[in-house]
Amino acid sequence: MEEFDDLLEEIDDFNNVSATLKFYGCNSFQVIIGDLRGISQATISRIKKNVSTAIARRCANHVKFPVDIADQRRNIAMFREMANFPTVCGCIDCTHIAVNNPGVLHAEVFRNRKEWFSLNML
To answer: Taxonomically, which superkingdom (predicted)?
Structure first.
């Protein structure tokens, strides 16, 4: 088990967060996310747990959704009027960073809706 902990320490924070966000964004299997980065499924599982816990601890300071019914209804009405989204009361923003075709077995998971390769960064 100690050797796995050493491996986690060798993977920098950016790659830990990036792997976790890729897992969230693609709704893919941990083994595929690991294959794309040369990391085992078990390590991806540990990374995902650590990053998810860190995000959850900080979430209340940075993520705000309406808690009372009046604010929720106001947001739902604004999203419906703005984009005809039914029952949406909040959203998040992100940025696509263009990358070259990674040329790996599952390269298509990097292709965005505009048909170019990118990393989706929150």
So the answer is: Eukaryota
Domain extent at residue 79? 64-122
Q: Tell me how many domains the chain contains.
A: 2
Residue 15: name the closest of 49, 57, 42, 47 by CA. Answer: 47
- Tens-digit pLDDT profile for residues 55-91: 888 888 877 888 899 999 999 999 999 989 888 888 8
Residue where a domain stops, chosen among 36, 63, 90: 63
